[in-house]
């Protein structure tokens, strides 16, 4: 390794670490609602009688909703269009979804009324449409309004303007469509017939049952004829901002298309804070155990890898913050889970360095720099392939997932890229600097690569003859697959509320709640089909097909009668149309994941290798699905994230072994079955050590990560264990079987070149 290359790696590492540290100290993270608490509402625009819900109409609806949300007084609200017809509204700190839904989900009808006089107090609309509303210009007074004479559909344009000639200051200029222009002339003509000072001389502009302006007709407006020309000017001593706001309300007061709520989620701030603490504790314990394991196995290089892992955490966190990505609870899981990928790259290098060190013999054995340098060069192909396959899964999550699970895809992708940087640059830099020390070179045993390790020693003495019994292994795997499919057929897959539609509300009581008593109370309230679950710490989860707020109030009252006062800690609502769509997207994401892995591996390897790896990966996915079916656990969007991660992990293991098999075959002269057994034996220490590093993190998440991450961690635990097994017992035997039946064509032997000319 040249000094110049080391210098460039050092400069790059220092720059990245310094930038990451600066971002971490100066930029606060953007927390999702599942971590800071609040309400998330997804609205979908629908076609109206005369309007089409396209992207332009959704954008106009978004602006109307943005102004309504401002009226809620929520700090830092977020509104964004998702796709062509969806609007995502996030309201931090707001725990009453009914208030939010009622405020932002209305059509916001804009109407123009003739004022018939003053009244004592407000009243709702009468049968003929008349009503009494507060006078915006005189607090404490009320105006009696006739039935609407004109609606906001007739307003063609509203603009704020500064009247410099008439001295009226800021005004709002209105223009009406053809038919509405006649209605405006009629209503203003009637108002102009009233005497000056009479409330009947005013015309009220009403938005959402509130008078936003009630201008009086000036003396120049003719009685009966009214204001012609299809235009009007609203005055009222406005400031520039007030005039612009009023123009915006009039112009965009009514939603251009109806909207319906297709998803609604509320998380209490206490639950979010507990999730942060639990995830942070799981991360610390999992990383500490992983670090200690790596140090115990690889000694000095393991210590350097642990330092690189800490820098990985800093760099990946800073990257997520710098990108402005929202950090969600599944995102935290993806952040912690990517540690396993970072460990994988380091273990690949160290295990290969052990092999290279042993191959050098005793003469060069006292200088460990050469085997480490060689190892970094030879593992690059396997490291790149394993990272790309995981990035494919993360990309599919980002495209097809919604809400917090999309954050999982973002943090997983960032973690994969960062692990590549830390393993191939930071770890290599630290290893090069440490191995230059004379004390280390005199004592190569401290590096951790001088000895082959216990597992490698046993495998070297006796290489297991796995592929000789490949039919037996494939038959056993097929049997396990049948058991998993039987679980799907017998028990069925319990889809989560995201995929079926419905509502799940989590309540918190002051004392433990008996499950049977809670179910009886909910059933007595008229919901016999509700799924009621309880925990020992007083949490009650109720899942129903009914999504209305009235039904949820009845359930809450029933639980209060059975268990005392309860508070809403989480409230998730998914409309049936969105549930069907998400279910389709989930199946599409899994199908594309299989196709993408097959296509990539076919390009990188032969189709026989790619088919074997994808078959093992498909087997792992089906086994995890079958396990959840037998256990009766729900398959929700977080479970989808776990499945796609299993896809990446499974292919990672297979790619490493197949890459070694391809390398061994280039030497020739040895039967394929022997080469396959040797490839498994040489890479099995890496498989076991990488799996152990991931298992530490996953067990910590399963035990300490809280209810939200338990099923996620269980799925990944099963996926990691099954992935290690399927590589040995499915991928390699199947690859050998396919290669035996469809051998690669022998490379063409070039014809010998004929010499011409004189021999000198």
Could you explain the architecture of this structure?
The protein has 760 residues and is an alpha+beta fold. It has an 8-stranded antiparallel beta sheet. Strands 5, 6, 7, 8, 11 and 12 form a 6-stranded antiparallel beta sheet that branches. Strands 9-10-13 form a 3-stranded antiparallel beta sheet. Helix 9 (369-378) packs antiparallel against helix 11 (404-435), helix 10 (380-400) packs antiparallel against helix 20 (637-665) and helix 20 runs antiparallel to helix 21 (672-704).
List the keywords.
760 residues; eight-stranded antiparallel beta sheet; six-stranded antiparallel beta sheet; 22 helices; disordered C terminus
Poorly predicted parts: 753-760
How helix-rich are the residues, as a percent range? 55-70%
Mean pLDDT: 79
Radius of gyration: 34 Å
> If helices are DSSP runs of H or I spanning 4 or more residues, what is the number of helices?
22
The overall strand count is: 19
């Amino acid at each position: 390794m040249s000094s110049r290359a080391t210098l460039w790696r050092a400069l790059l590492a220092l720059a990245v670490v310094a930038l990451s540290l600066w971002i971490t100290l100066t930029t606060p993270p953007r927390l999702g609602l599942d971590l800071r608490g609040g309400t998330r509402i997804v609205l979908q625009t629908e076609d109206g009688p005369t309007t089409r819900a396209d992207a332009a109409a959704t954008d106009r609806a978004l602006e109307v909703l943005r102004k309504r949300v401002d009226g809620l007084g929520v700090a830092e609200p977020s509104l964004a269009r998702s796709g062509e017809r969806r609007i995502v509204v996030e309201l931090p700190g707001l725990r009453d979804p009914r208030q939010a839904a009622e405020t932002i989900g209305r059509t916001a009808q804009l109407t123009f009324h003739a004022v018939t006089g003053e009244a004592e107090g407000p009243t709702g609309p009468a049968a003929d449409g008349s009503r009494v509303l507060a006078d915006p210009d005189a607090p404490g007074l009320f105006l009696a309004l006739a039935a609407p004479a004109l609606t906001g559909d007739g307003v063609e344009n509203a603009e704020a303007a500064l009247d410099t000639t008439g001295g009226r200051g800021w005004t709002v200029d209105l223009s009406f469509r053809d038919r509405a222009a006649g209605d405006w002339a009629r209503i203003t003509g009637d108002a102009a017939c009233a005497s000056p000072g009479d409330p009947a001389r005013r015309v009220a502009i009403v938005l959402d049952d509130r008078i936003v302006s009630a201008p009086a007709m000036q003396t120049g407006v003719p009685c009966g004829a009214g204001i012609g020309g299809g235009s009007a000017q609203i005055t009222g001593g406005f400031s520039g901002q007030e005039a612009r706001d009023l123009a915006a309300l009039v112009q965009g007061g009514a939603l251009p298309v109806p909207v319906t709520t297709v998803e609604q989620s509320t998380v209490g701030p206490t639950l979010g804070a507990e999730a942060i603490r639990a995830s942070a504790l799981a991360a610390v314990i999992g990383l500490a155990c992983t670090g200690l394991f790596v140090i115990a196995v690889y000694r000095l290089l393991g210590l350097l890898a642990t330092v690189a892992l800490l820098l990985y955490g800093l760099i990946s966190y800073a990257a997520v913050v710098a990108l402005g990505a929202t950090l969600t609870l599944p995102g935290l899981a993806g952040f912690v889970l990517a540690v396993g990928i970072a460990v994988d790259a380091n273990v690949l290098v160290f295990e290969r360095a052990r092999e290279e060190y042993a191959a050098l013999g005793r003469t060069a054995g006292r200088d460990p720099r050469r085997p480490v340098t060689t190892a970094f060069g030879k593992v690059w192909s396997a490291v790149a392939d394993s990272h790309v396959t995981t990035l494919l899964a993360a990309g599919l999550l980002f495209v097809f997932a919604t809400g917090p699970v999309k954050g999982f895809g973002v943090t997983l992708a960032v973690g994969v890229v960062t692990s590549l940087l830390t393993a191939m640059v930071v770890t290599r830099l630290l290893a090069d600097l440490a191995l230059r020390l004379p004390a280390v070179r005199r004592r190569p045993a401290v590096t951790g690569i001088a000895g082959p390790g216990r597992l490698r020693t046993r495998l070297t003495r006796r290489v297991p003859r796995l592929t000789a019994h490949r039919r037996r292994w494939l038959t056993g795997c097929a049997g396990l697959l049948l058991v998993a499919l039987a679980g799907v057929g017998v028990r069925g897959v319990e889809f989560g509320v995201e995929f079926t539609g419905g509502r799940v509300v989590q309540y918190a009581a002051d004392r433990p709640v008996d499950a049977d008593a809670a179910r009886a109370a909910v059933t007595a309230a008229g919901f016999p089909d509700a799924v009621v679950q309880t925990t020992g710490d007083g949490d009650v989860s109720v899942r129903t097909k009914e999504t209305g707020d009235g039904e949820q109030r009845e359930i809450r009252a029933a639980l209060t009668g059975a268990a005392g006062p309860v508070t809403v800690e989480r409230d998730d609502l998914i409309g049936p149309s969105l549930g069907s769509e998400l279910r389709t997207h989930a199946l599409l994401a899994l199908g594309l994941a299989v196709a993408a892995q097959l296509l990539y591996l076919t390009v990188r390897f032969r189709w026989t290798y790619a088919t074997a790896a994808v078959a093992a990966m498909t087997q792992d996915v089906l086994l995890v699905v079958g396990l959840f079916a037998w256990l009766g656990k729900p398959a929700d969007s977080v479970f989808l994230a776990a499945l796609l991660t299993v896809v990446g992990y499974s292919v990672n293991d297979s790619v490493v072994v197949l890459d070694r098999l391809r390398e061994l075959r280039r030497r020739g002269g040895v039967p394929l079955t022997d080469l396959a057994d040797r490839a498994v034996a040489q890479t099995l220490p890496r498989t076991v050590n990488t799996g152990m590093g991931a298992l530490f993190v996953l067990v910590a998440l399963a035990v300490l990560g809280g209810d939200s991450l338990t099923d996620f961690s269980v799925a990944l635990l099963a996926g990691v264990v099954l992935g290690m097994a399927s590589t040995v017992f499915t991928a390699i035997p199947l690859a050998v079987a396919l290669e035996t039946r469809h051998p690669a064509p022998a490379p063409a032997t070039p014809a010998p070149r004929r010499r011409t000319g004189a021999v000198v």
